[in-house]
Automatic annotation (TrEMBL), chain B:
<feature type="domain" description="Transketolase-like pyrimidine-binding">
    <location>
        <begin position="4"/>
        <end position="179"/>
    </location>
</feature>
<protein>
    <submittedName>
        <fullName>Alpha-ketoacid dehydrogenase subunit beta</fullName>
    </submittedName>
</protein>
<dbReference type="GO" id="GO:0000287">
    <property type="term" value="F:magnesium ion binding"/>
</dbReference>
<dbReference type="InterPro" id="IPR005475">
    <property type="entry name" value="Transketolase-like_Pyr-bd"/>
</dbReference>
<dbReference type="InterPro" id="IPR009014">
    <property type="entry name" value="Transketo_C/PFOR_II"/>
</dbReference>
<dbReference type="GO" id="GO:0016491">
    <property type="term" value="F:oxidoreductase activity"/>
</dbReference>
<dbReference type="InterPro" id="IPR029061">
    <property type="entry name" value="THDP-binding"/>
</dbReference>
<keyword id="KW-0786">Thiamine pyrophosphate</keyword>
<keyword id="KW-0560">Oxidoreductase</keyword>
<dbReference type="Pfam" id="PF02779">
    <property type="entry name" value="Transket_pyr"/>
</dbReference>
<dbReference type="Pfam" id="PF02780">
    <property type="entry name" value="Transketolase_C"/>
</dbReference>
<dbReference type="InterPro" id="IPR033248">
    <property type="entry name" value="Transketolase_C"/>
</dbReference>
Length: 382, 336
């Protein structure tokens, strides 16, 4: 990477693309970092154990989501395994009053924002258009249009600044999204207005079947320089480093110093979604090489080095994870068939004569059946 | 009552909205110091400041997408799309985000975004500056689409659009920005006709002529000309394309038995097609003749020297009226 004068540009970028910002080696060894160490000085064994539990829960929920899809309980699931540290590390850096705008793959972020397990599956089951109330978690509904949420985060952040608040927004998106106009336009707006927003790009190396090299011929973090904001490339499988750089970026935003672009270098271990077959486009040894950088094993090894009883940590985390996955499975299967007439709800905030006419007509149609809406509901469920 | 242009009436309505609610913010290209390329936002930045009247980067998706985020935060953004043909880069944010987020969040997130679009031709502009894209948005659930046609409506409807908790595509007939009319600036907003309802612009008995935007004045001129020949045309200003106030049109058609719809946009899949279908469904037995559409051709908007052959004018509208009346017309004796 070309050295850039950090004083002139405010860049936080580390200068060697082969040397990501990293605080934990793959074997769990802690790497001292004078600049970043203060940002995670509060993470004692107890707190790290909680964070490890988060990772384990998120991985288990992800596995459960895949299983529920295979068993026909949900229509689709976009696995996140491999990206747990990127999601949990960044989301746990946020304050409650910060606002999150994420994509469909950030179930780990949603978990960290307090969304109940049923909220993670109801949309994939096709029983609701979203799984939670945004204001309850300061978490926008997940975005399927690639990169669209980066603009929403930027607008929210502009508003926060105009309100004189010190809250920040964070936008999650993948490497593929960096090719979209919306992400580039969000970077322009954020830089122009010095909006308190953090762009958190999870470079998981694959946009369905397309490698990151098809999106960019250079490390994505370097693009930030062109937009006039700091860009930092962090090891996305290193929870400590992710949390440190995200906290620092949020602090920068709160101080009114503007946006930051974080590229968390990670890897999607599974398919893009359960509808995808990654063996058609990537080699098994590539996946194996990333298994050696597993974010859970790395944090666990670090806990061991700190003197924690890692067998107990793992065992306790599994208890929490098992409870969460059981809750998700049972809640998923208990989701009722939505009422037929609810398709007309909440389209408009105010009355709409055209839709009211359609609603009345369909209600009359349903009423022709002896068992009314029930027969229609069962039909739809089949 | 004050006499002012349609453009000035919009400016006055925007000023009222900014003063009434400090969560209203205006965003767009060149709307600050310049006051917009049509001067609709003239003086507002000086009055309300750069955080209320915001000059943005040149990015339609950026303007509308950030407005979504602002709405998440409780603002009421009013965005200006500089010209009709520039709205397409923001189309995804409008139809996939703005239109759907109230539904997706089960009503817990409101998108009270007003998207102002100067639209239509007749000003001899360059390409992409004379388009009528309204039907794209009228087809999208979750959006309201309204069009003002005179200064009083412009003043009132822009305030109603901003006050609405729904997203509103607000089309402004740019060729009528300089048209003058009486505006009651002191009138209470609560006493005004809702923006979702059509109005009878001129009463008449023989033919119902429905239109919106710039063509309302052309239709009035046509009705005045027809009256000299003893034909009484009722001109209806549709005002709201989505939802469409069919009841007002039905009441008229049941009386006149004849319907002509005119708009600048192309015929296929246009607002006129929807209107004719709705009237055919509900007033079939009242119709004395097949409904008639007088529209722009299904062509890209032509170069300025040819636009008079595309935009319906008084004579083309009267030809359509003649068709509805079974009088000699351009299609007489011609296979359809």
């Amino acid at each position: 990477m070309t050295p850039t004068d950090p004083v002139r540009t405010g860049l936080l970028t580390r200068d060697d693309e082969h040397d990501l910002t990293r605080m934990l080696e793959p074997d769990g060894t802690r790497r001292a970092d004078a600049e970043l160490d203060p940002w995670i000085a509060d993470l004692d064994v107890s707190r790290l154990t909680e964070l490890y539990t988060d990772l384990a829960v998120v991985r288990a929920l992800d596995a459960q989501g895949v299983a529920l899809q295979r068993q026909g309980e949900v229509g689709l699931w976009p696995p996140l395994t491999g990206q747990e540290a990127a999601q949990v590390g960044s989301a746990r850096a946020l304050r409650a009053d910060d606002y999150v705008f994420a994509s469909y793959r950030e179930m780990g972020v949603a978990w960290a924002r307090g969304v109940a397990p049923v909220g993670l599956v109801i949309e994939w089951r096709g029983a609701a258009a979203s799984g939670w109330v945004p204001a309850e978690h300061n978490l926008a509904v997940p975005q399927i249009i690639i990169g669209a949420q980066s603009l929403h985060a930027t607008g929210w952040a502009m508003g926060a600044a105009w309100d004189g608040a010190d809250s920040a927004a964070i936008a999650y998106f993948g490497d593929g999204a960096t090719s979209e106009g919306d992400v580039n336009e969000a970077l322009v707006f954020a830089a122009s207005f010095q909006a308190p927003v953090v762009f958190f790009c999870q470079n998981n190396h694959w946009a369905i079947s397309e490698p990151v090299t098809l999106q960019s011929r250079q490390p994505l973090a370097r693009r930030a320089d062109g937009f006039g904001m700091p860009g930092i490339r962090v090891d996305g499988n290193d929870l400590l480093a992710v949390m440190a750089v995200t906290r620092r970026a949020l602090d920068r935003a709160r101080r009114g110093d503007g946006p930051t672009f974080i590229e968390a270098v990670t890897y999607r271990m599974g398919p893009h979604t359960t509808a995808d077959d990654p063996t058609r486009y990537r080699a098994a040894d590539e996946i194996e090489s990333w298994r050696e950088r597993d974010p859970l094993a790395r944090l666990l090894a670090h806990l061991g080095a700190l003197g924690a009883d890692i067998e107990a940590v793992e065992r306790d985390a599994k208890v929490v994870a098992d409870a969460a996955t059981t809750e998700m499975r049972e809640a998923c299967r208990a989701i009722p068939q939505p009422e037929p007439m609810s398709v007309f709800d909440h389209i408009y905030a105010e009355p709409n004569s055209h839709l009211e006419r359609q609603r009345d007509r369909y209600a009359r149609y349903l009423a022709m059946f002896d068992d009314g809406a029930g027969a229609q509901g069962e039909e739809a469920a089949r | 009552m004050t006499t002012m242009t349609l453009g000035k009436a919009l400016n006055s309505g925007l000023r009222r909205a900014l003063a009434a609610d400090d969560r209203v913010v205006l965003m767009g290209e060149d709307i600050g110091d310049l006051g917009g390329v049509f001067r609709i936002t003239d003086g507002l930045k000086a009055e309300f400041g750069a955080n209320r009247v915001v000059d943005t980067p040149l990015s339609e998706a950026g303007i509308i997408g950030t407005a979504v985020g602002l709405a998440y935060r409780g603002f009421r953004p009013v965005v200006e799309i500089q010209f009709d043909g520039f709205i397409y880069p923001g189309f995804d944010q409008i139809v996939a985000q703005v239109a759907k987020l109230h539904f997706r969040t089960r009503g817990t997130v409101k998108m009270p975004i007003t998207i102002r679009v100067p639209f239509g031709g007749g000003i001899g502009a360059a390409e992409h500056h004379s388009e009528s894209p309204e039907a794209y948005f009228a087809h999208t659930a979750g959006l309201r689409v309204v069009v003002c046609s005179n200064p009083q409506d412009a003043f009132v409807m822009i305030q109603q659009a901003i006050a609405s908790d729904d997203p509103v595509l607000f089309f402004e007939p740019k060729r009528r920005y300089h048209m003058k009319g009486e505006v009651d600036e002191q009138a209470s907003l609560a006493d005004q006709k809702p923006m979702g309802l059509a109005t009878v612009a001129m009463p008449g008995d023989d033919v119902t002529l429905v239109t919106y935007g710039a063509l309302v004045q052309t239709a009035r001129d046509a009705a005045t000309a027809a009256a000299e020949e003893g034909v009484s045309i009722e001109v209806i200003d549709l005002r709201s394309l989505a939802p469409m106030d069919v009841r007002t049109i039905e009441q008229s058609v049941r009386r006149t038995g004849r319907l002509v719809v005119t708009h600048e946009a192309g015929e296929q899949g246009g607002v006129g097609a929807e209107l004719v279908a709705r009237v055919a469904e509900s007033c079939f037995e009242y119709l004395e003749a097949a409904p008639v559409r007088v529209t722009g051709h299904d062509i890209p908007y032509p170069p300025a020297k040819l636009e008079q052959h595309h935009v319906p004018d008084l004579d083309r509208i009267l030809d359509g009226v003649d068709r509805a009346l079974g009088r000699p017309n351009s299609l007489s004796g011609v296979e359809a």
